[in-house]
Amino acid sequence: MTIIEKELTNHSYIDHELSAKLDSTEAFEGPEKLLEIWFYPSAKDIPQESSSKSTLRDIEVAKWVEVLKLVKCEVLSVRSTNSMDAFLLSESSLFVYDHKITLKTCGTTTTLFCLQRLFDVIDAELGWDVCKNKDKEGRYHPYKVFYSRRCFMFPLKQRSIHKNWANEIEFLNKLFCHGRSYLVGRNDESNHWNLYVTETNKSMAQKLSDGDPDETLEILMTGLSHERAQQFIYTRDVNGQQASKNSEEDEGHTLGFKITKETSLDCVYSNNTNSSFHHDAFAFTPCGYSANMMMDEKYYYTLHVTPEKGWSYASFESNVPVSKISENKQDNVQVVNHVLKVFQPHDFCLTFFTKDVWSESFGKFMNVGEQVPGYTRKDRIIYDLEDYQLLYMRFERV
Fold this sequence. Notes:
The protein is about 20% helix and about 30% strand. It is an alpha+beta fold. The protein folds into two domains: about 10-20 and about 30-200, S-adenosylmethionine decarboxylase (4-Layer Sandwich); about 215-395, 4-Layer Sandwich (S-adenosylmethionine decarboxylase). Strands 1-3-4-5-6-2-7-9-8 form a nine-stranded antiparallel sheet. It has an eight-stranded antiparallel sheet with strand order 11-12-13-14-10-15-17-16. The chain is globular, with a radius of gyration of 20 Å. The model is unreliable at about 240-250 (pLDDT under 50). This is S-adenosylmethionine decarboxylase proenzyme. One of its GO terms (biological process) is pantothenate biosynthetic process. Pathway: Amine and polyamine biosynthesis; S-adenosylmethioninamine biosynthesis; S-adenosylmethioninamine from S-adenosyl-L-methionine: step 1/1. Its EC number is 4.1.1.50.
């Protein structure tokens, strides 16, 4: 499975002017804030109204641009499949499904500050009850909310509440019912991971699912190998580059395409089912890289790299069901090793969410030892989060 040239021309939206002028010289904080909101359990559970607009994907791009301004990031481009819209942002990514969103932003973005406006837009555009009905304290209760982040390298450079995890949780608890927060990892270490999750709204009766496992894998890497980090450092003239009329001349996207092929990041998964595959990547100046990969119309994996010496960082996140896509020829441990080979970090933490504690992927991760060559496992922590199991592990290079 490799990307092809047409991937540079079939965006559903692209901002050539932003692409031409975006300068990331001052970017510094790689670790992202990851927000996932399930408004309903599935697309099937969305109430059918007479309005022509019925799902999140019916909200026009201009409205998402408006919401994202509150986050302090912009939309570079959008790729759409039959089941989702993948936004490549000036600071990471946004994935919009019919019934849920996943927003991942790095740097000094103010991710949580878009929440009230997001609910207001959905209420105005779609009229969803989940955005109208509040408890007596004025809090929302969607089906499920997740918010997580690795501890920041430079927390004091963050804006407002994002300087401190306790302040973020206080903010979330004023918006959502029944939230719980966790500090995952060693309190005396500077690389722990934070999680906030709400109780599942079980009053939303979930209809028959399509049988897909709901699994999310995240790998957060620091201290990238100097040689590997150099793959994401280059020079292009931002001030002299003019906004072009077609994406073949869009240097940021063209370089992103080139980097994806050279690093084999389009070959992370063995696509033995010959499922559809779409790609959208961007190379920032003077360094940095972001990519969204979409498989089988409804799955994604996304990568973000800040290669600066002294605070280099890369992240990989995926909801791809590896056994299904590979026809049981590949597992998530092999996926992890493929990603590590590209970046060769000094250390990394891995999180894995699953609804099925007996899944093959969960079992293999539980027994990871010598299967990650060159690294030793420092921590392994398991949480039973109501209807999800969370596995957290931290590794260091031997």
